[in-house]
Each structure stands twice: as structure tokens, then as C-alpha cells.
């Protein structure tokens, strides 16, 4: 199957060479584009692209006639698919009643202390069959695809038993098999201490290390291991135990870090070579220095900061420290029931004063690197996966985050195929 797209008003995020590392600091300001362009895919890859004006009319004609499908994208732009590197897409039911509690003044931590929050989702998930869980998750997967996402990381963490964590990760893997999304999976057994270990957090970490990690690894269900390092959840010492155990099975760390306090999550992530440390509301120069040249990506989750009505991280200062930033949705039932990457970019611009170029790079190329998928996703590059979206008619790329509730996507192409729901 080949697809030829002509008269593209702007091809956005064009990188001539396959990028080998995420963009950092000032580099994030640069978003190379090609005006009045064409793009050719072959199989699931980008085969070639160029400027309409610099290509001989007979070459254009022969590319068009040889292609299986042709799209005239006059007035429309092409963007690399969003790479959403932090989600909890697999969950059962919803938690809108806690949302009401929050509006009445209860904090996220207070709800958790009363046995709600994550533990609420744990109970719902336990009482839901794997097939039903898959059905609910596929609905959300279809939703994010239509919003422009092409690659997604999905965590466990609402199981908290060997059986239910495995159920979640199997569902996550099946999303990767049954949709054109590229799916990375993360084992997050250390998301909350389950009720059966109340008062014995360390005993639960022992179960994670002794039983859960080997069981998850035996089925090859997780690419990464994650932990919520936070007061009332898990400690830096717990993270060390879990990362050391997971390293033996090739699971690279990620960390829920510094969301509600200066928890040490950033530093322990860096120490163990984490792919990313995510959240980062409670960070400053000490954390930024730890991240400099570390190979760990600082991932912002502005949707959760918004939904929990917190103060935003100092992302501009992170850029001054020359850090690589990614933006992800954190789609989950408790702190961010949305997987809309356009909205996340708009929040990052409005609340953290980032530029459109920076947020687009953070939501595409750097998101891909936060899933170790930068060689295949996140930019328009010959040889990369043909995963991109074609907008409706729009005046500029700034219009995307500016027009933050409008549906601006015309066609979605994933792995070289036009996606039809
Ligand atoms: O990333 N902070 C921890 N985990 C999720 C929230 C999960 C939930 O509340 O269900 C997050 O915000």
C-alpha cells in the first residue's frame, strides 16, 4: 500500500536525519517545516517527501499515478502523530464522584487517605473481566487516535495483585495488537499500597520484588517499571529496591516524581537511568541540575496539574537548564480524565509560557524518546513510521494549540494506512 499526499500547505516537524537524541533547551524552539509539500508512504514507512515547487511536474505526475491512494491536502497541514508517553489508559469505570469531592474541598491526598482515589479504581478493576476491561480501553484508544495520537505508553497500577496487574498489562499489550497504536507498557505495581498491606508498605514492596516483577517479566508484559514516589505512597528506598529487581529483567525505570512534594523522585530516577521522570510540580534548581546531561527526560503532565488545580512546574527554567522536555496526557480516571494532547499543549503554553514550537516538539519527538521510540516516531523523516495526521484547513500551526477545543483533524494515517473508525 502506498499513499501520495499532495499540495500540503505545511509539513510540520520535518527532520532530514533520523534524530538520535531528544531535543533539549533552546533546540526545542526549532520546528523545521516544509511549505507546499508532498509526502509519499510505502508500506508502513515514510518513503519520501519534497516541495511541490522544487519537484518536476512529470515526477509529481508519476508519483501520483503509481500510488494506491492519493490525498489532495490543499490548505491543510501534516503533523507527526502525538507520542503520549504517560497514560493509565487501562482502567475500569470512572471516578466522577471523587471529582465532586474535590470540588467540595478535599485534596487528592485526603481522598487517598480515606481509601478512595487509586484504591477505588483498584476495586472496580478487580471486579471487571479482562474482556470487558479491553472493551473499555479500546474505546479510549479509539478516542486518542481520533485526537491525533499514534504512540502511547500505558501503565498498570490499578491491579496491585499479581493477577490483576497481569490482567492490566495483557490488556495494554492487546491494545497494541488490535489497534494501529504503537504501545509501550509499564509495570506500576507501586502505584498505591493496597488495603491488605495497610501499615506494611515495605511488605508490599517485598511482594512486588519477589512475585510481581518476575511474573510480569515471564510473560514479557512490561517494557518499563514505574513507582509513585510521594508522601503517603512510596519512598526513595522503595524505588531502589524495585529498580534493582526490575533491572535484572531489562525493565527501564520511569518515575512518578515530585508531584506533591520534593520527594527525591527525580534524583532516584536519574540515579537509575530512568527514561523519564514525570509530573515535576515540586522541582527547582536542585532537581534541574540532577537532570542536566542525565539522559532522563523531564515529562510535564499539565492536564493533571490543571485538574487538581495545582501550581505548574517552572518549565521555562527547565529549558534554561538545557533539559529535554516531553508533554504527555496522563490519561487516567483520577487526576486527568483526558487524553487530548492538543489541550495539554495549550495548557503548557498558557500556564507555563512555552512556545508553540516547544510544545509541539515536546508532544511528538521528545514524547517518542521518552518511550525509547525516537528512531521510529515523532517526526516526518524518511524511513520512520508513516504515522501522522492531516488537519482540516487551518491558517498556521499556532492555530492548533490556540483553537484548543476545536476538532481540527481531517485524516489520521497510522503505519501508512488511513485510519477509519
Ligand atoms: O499520574 N499520581 C499518581 N498516579 C496518577 C493518578 C492516578 C489516579 O488517581 O487514579 C497520576 O496522576
From TrEMBL:
Belongs to the metallo-dependent hydrolases superfamily. HutI family. It comes from the Bacteria. It is found in: Cytoplasm. N-formimidoyl-L-glutamate binds at residues 158, 332, 334. Pathway: Amino-acid degradation; L-histidine degradation into L-glutamate; N-formimidoyl-L-glutamate from L-histidine: step 3/3. Its EC number is 3.5.2.7. The gene is hutI. Zn(2+) binds at residues 86, 88, 256, 330. One of its GO terms (molecular function) is imidazolonepropionase activity. The keyword Hydrolase applies. It catalyses: 4-imidazolone-5-propanoate + H2O = N-formimidoyl-L-glutamate. Catalyzes the hydrolytic cleavage of the carbon-nitrogen bond in imidazolone-5-propanoate to yield N-formimidoyl-L-glutamate. It is the third step in the universal histidine degradation pathway. Keywords: Cytoplasm, Histidine metabolism, Hydrolase, Iron, Metal-binding, Zinc. Its cofactor is Zn(2+); Fe(3+). This is Imidazolonepropionase. Fe(3+) binds at residues 86, 88, 256, 330. 4-imidazolone-5-propanoate binds at residues 95, 158, 191, 259, 335. InterPro entries: Amidohydro-rel (IPR006680), HutI (IPR005920), Metal-dep_hydrolase_composite (IPR011059), Metal_Hydrolase (IPR032466). GO terms for cellular component: cytoplasm. GO terms for biological process: L-histidine catabolic process to glutamate and formamide. Binds 1 zinc or iron ion per subunit. Residues 300-393 form the Amidohydrolase-related domain. Signal peptide: none annotated. Gene3D superfamilies: Metal-dependent hydrolases, Urease, subunit C, domain 1. The lineage of its organism: Bacteria, Pseudomonadati, Bacteroidota, Bacteroidia, Bacteroidales.
Amino acid at each position: 500500500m502506498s499513499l501520495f499526499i499532495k499540495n500540503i500547505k505545511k509539513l510540520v516537524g520535518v527532520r532530514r536525519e533520523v534524530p538520535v537524541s531528544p531535543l533539549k533547551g533552546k533546540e526545542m524552539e526549532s520546528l523545521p517545516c516544509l511549505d507546499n509539500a508532498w509526502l509519499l508512504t510505502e508500506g508502513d514507512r515514510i518513503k519520501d517527501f519534497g516541495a511541490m515547487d522544487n519537484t518536476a511536474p512529470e515526477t509529481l505526475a508519476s508519483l501520483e499515478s503509481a500510488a494506491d491512494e492519493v490525498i489532495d491536502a490543499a490548505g491543510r497541514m501534516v503533523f507527526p502523530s502525538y507520542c503520549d508517553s504517560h497514560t493509565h489508559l487501562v482502567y475500569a469505570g470512572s471516578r466522577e464522584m471523587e471529582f465532586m469531592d474535590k470540588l467540595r474541598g478535599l485534596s487528592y491526598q485526603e481522598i487517598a487517605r480515606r481509601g478512595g482515589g487509586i484504591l477505588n479504581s483498584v476495586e472496580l478493576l478487580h471486579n471487571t473481566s479482562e474482556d470487558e476491561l479491553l472493551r473499555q480501553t479500546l474505546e479510549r484508544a479509539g478516542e486518542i487516535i481520533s485526537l491525533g495520537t499514534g504512540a502511547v505508553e500505558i501503565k498498570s497500577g490499578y491491579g496491585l495483585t499479581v493477577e490483576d496487574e497481569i490482567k492490566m498489562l495483557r490488556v495494554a499489550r492487546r491494545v497494541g495488537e488490535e489497534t494501529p497504536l504503537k504501545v509501550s507498557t509499564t509495570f506500576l505495581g507501586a502505584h498505591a499500597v493496597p488495603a491488605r498491606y495497610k501499615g506494611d508498605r515495605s511488605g508490599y514492596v517485598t511482594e512486588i520484588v519477589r512475585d510481581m516483577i518476575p511474573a510480569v517479566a515471564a510473560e514479557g508484559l512490561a517494557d518499563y517499571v514505574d513507582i509513585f514516589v510521594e508522601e503517603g505512597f512510596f519512598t526513595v528506598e522503595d524505588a531502589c529496591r524495585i529498580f534493582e529487581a526490575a533491572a535484572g529483567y531489562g525493565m527501564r525505570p520511569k518515575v512518578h516524581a515530585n508531584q506533591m512534594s520534593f520527594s527525591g523522585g527525580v534524583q532516584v530516577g536519574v540515579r537509575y537511568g530512568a527514561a523519564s521522570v514525570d509530573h515535576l510540580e515540586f522541582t527547582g534548581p536542585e532537581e534541574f541540575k540532577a537532570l542536566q546531561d542525565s539522559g532522563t527526560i523531564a515529562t510535564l503532565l499539565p492536564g493533571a496539574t490543571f485538574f487538581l488545580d495545582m501550581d505548574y512546574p517552572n518549565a521555562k527554567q527547565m529549558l534554561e537548564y538545557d533539559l529535554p522536555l516531553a508533554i504527555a496526557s496522563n490519561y487516567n480516571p483520577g487526576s486527568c480524565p483526558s487524553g487530548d494532547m492538543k489541550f495539554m499543549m495549550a495548557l503548557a503554553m498558557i500556564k507555563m509560557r512555552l512556545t508553540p514550537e516547544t510544545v509541539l516538539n515536546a508532544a511528538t519527538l521528545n514524547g517518542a524518546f521518552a518511550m525509547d521510540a525516537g528512531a521510529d516516531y515523532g517526526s516526518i523523516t524518511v524511513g520512520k513510521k508513516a504515522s501522522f495526521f492531516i488537519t482540516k484547513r487551518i491558517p498556521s500551526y499556532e492555530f492548533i494549540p490556540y483553537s484548543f477545543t476545536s476538532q481540527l483533524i481531517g485524516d489520521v494515517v497510522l503505519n501508512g494506512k488511513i485510519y477509519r473508525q
